Amino acid sequence: MPWVQVHIPVEKAAAQAVELLLETIGAISITLTDAGDEPQLEPAPGEERIWSETVVTALFESETDWQQLRSALETALDQLNINATPVIEVLEEQEWERAWLDDFKPMRFGERLWVVPRGLQLPDEATDPVVMTLDPGLAFGTGTHPTTALCLEWLDQADLPGKDVIDFGCGSGILAIAALLLGARQATGIDHDPQALIASEQNAEENGVLDRLVLQNSDTPPQKSADIVMANILASVLIDLSTQLASLPRQGGRIALSGILADQAEDVRAAFDPYFRLEATQNLDDWVLITGTKR
Q1: Which residue range is the domain that position 34 belongs to?
Q2: Residue 186 included in any domain
Q3: Which of 8, 77, 207, 264 could form a disulfide with 235 if both were Cys (CB 3.0 to 4.6 A apart)?
Q4: Are 58 and 5 contacting, i.e. CB atoms less than 8 angstroms apart?
Q5: Binding site per annotation, positions for S-adenosyl-L-methionine
Q6: In the beta sheet, which residues pair with residue 293?
Q7: What is the pLDDT of residue 127?
């Protein structure tokens, strides 16, 4: 059936009030998205971030009178002293669960590693591929962001067979699963978000590596050190956790740090230089990957 969809662009300070307003008048779902191009990576525990310019989008049942809805919204926004103009559209019925296939294609990282959405086939040029099946649109990363792409390309050329890996801030589990598919002996995925651990478990099971993946909350220290440690999280969090992260690799082990904007690289390097022989920073768009070997 069709749906009535409302978009309301607002400043950050008004986003929560508009979200509550839409919920009060009967929205069946509400999402907040970036109105510009402002990066927001995974927040720290207990922290909530939204964009400076946000679009609040709501869905209403098909029988909703959109003219009455517009009038009610304009009146309520005026009463709240929020200067915003609602944009209302009718969405016709379609196969929403497959609509994302129009925008996502198989992606290659490095020479061998491919991330392939469910239902799609590898292109003909794929030779000797290592294939991970993973739907786009997951809340915790699918390889489309430069920070994840940098890590996946690095993993593709890493010496992984027989190695133990820790993925700190594992999200969807994409990095840990990629490491296992590329030959790692075992991987440990760590995250503070229970939904991330659920997503990692489901994705690992689908890719046939769940028996070699250990998942745990970030409050629980890993049971043992690892040959390779990856952390694709915010630069500020990497710096705050530098001592803890530095304790995770074995002597001579490797570390890969991402989620870092180019202008943050020197601060992150300074925090980890006492523990690692750091290599040249790798760049993709405005993001960087910092790697090194434990001293």
Answers
A1: 3-93
A2: yes
A3: 264
A4: yes
A5: 148, 169, 191, 232
A6: 254, 277
A7: 80
